[in-house]
Amino acid sequence: MCYFDDFEGKPNAGTIGAEGALRKLRNDLSHLHGLTEPQCVQESRKRSEDLDELLEAVSFLVDVPLVYIRDYALDGFTGERRVVYDLLRGASVVFERVQRVVGKEIPRESLGLLGHSGDFYTLSPWLNLHTCEVCKRPEVFVFNRCTKGQEATFVAMESGHPWPSEEMGGVFSKLMMPHAGL
Questions:
Q1: Cis peptide before 125 (omega within 30 of 0)
Q2: Helix (H) or strand (E) run with residue 34 in it
Q3: Do residues 97 and 82 make contact, with C-beta atoms less than 8 angstroms apart?
Q4: pLDDT digits (tens, 9 = 90+) for 87-128
Q5: Has residue 143 got a pLDDT over 60?
Q6: How far is the CA of 43 from the CAs of 29, 38, 96, 101, in angstroms?
Q7: How confident is residue 146, by pLDDT bands cut at 50, 70 and 90?
Q8: Which of 9, 23, 79, 175 gives 20 to 30 Å between its CA and that of 149?
Q9: In terms of pTM, does the model score above 0.70?
Q10: What is the pLDDT of residue 78?
Q11: Exposure string for 29-57, b = 16+ CB within 10 A, e = fewer
Q12: CA 58, CA 62: separation in Å to the nearest integer?
């Protein structure tokens, strides 16, 4: 089953070229491959259409709820698996809390998408809900980079504040480790 089968308006395969071109530009700019400033501006202008194509391809995600799993429990008497999640909508830190029965175990404190069928698709460890050390309020942090010292850095999606995490650095270093024999 494709990850996007549960969502309406799935991204199309034509975006692969746009994604590749943008990734190459990012690598060229971030690894100082010797592009001059005029070349950087020219390449950025050329790639704006690629960015528009990618944003259009994932526009369906606007209608897919982002949820935070507040609690999960297996009822020992009935055998029902119950999850309590917050629907993360808007700028308020007060979110609608929903409880429902689910068919499989869902890890507590994970962040993910709720498909149209009600299935949960985790976005962890790439996105995390964490209290911002600067703002002192909960924010959604997206993975930014992993340093050689195995510290992962996340950036808050709303404020842009950084969150460095050595614990998550270990997780990402394992995820990015090349597999033997590949």
A1: yes
A2: none
A3: no
A4: 887 656 567 888 989 888 888 888 988 888 888 888 888 888
A5: yes
A6: 10, 9, 43, 50
A7: confident
A8: 23
A9: no
A10: 92
A11: eeeeeeeeeeeeeeeeeebeebeebbeeb
A12: 8
**Number of neighbours of residue 156 by Cβ within 10 angstroms:** 20
Condensed to tens digits (0 to 9), the pLDDT of residues 8-17 reads 555 555 677 7
The amino acid at residue 111 is: L
Token pair 């799993």 is found at 69
CA 150 – CA 165 distance, rounded (Å): 9
The rounded distance, in Å, linking the Cα atoms of 137 and 71 is: 20
Report which residue type is found at 75. D
Give the DSSP H/E element, type plus range, for residue 27. Answer: helix 15-30
**Residue 78 in tokens:** 């009935």
Of the candidates 96, 13, 97, which has an alpha carbon nearest to the alpha carbon of residue 53? 13
Cβ-proximal residues to 117 (8 Å cutoff; 6+ apart), any chain? 6
Q: What count of residues does the chain have?
A: 182
Amino acid at 20: G
C-alpha closest to that of 111 among 132, 95, 126, 131: 126
Beta bridge partners of 129: 140
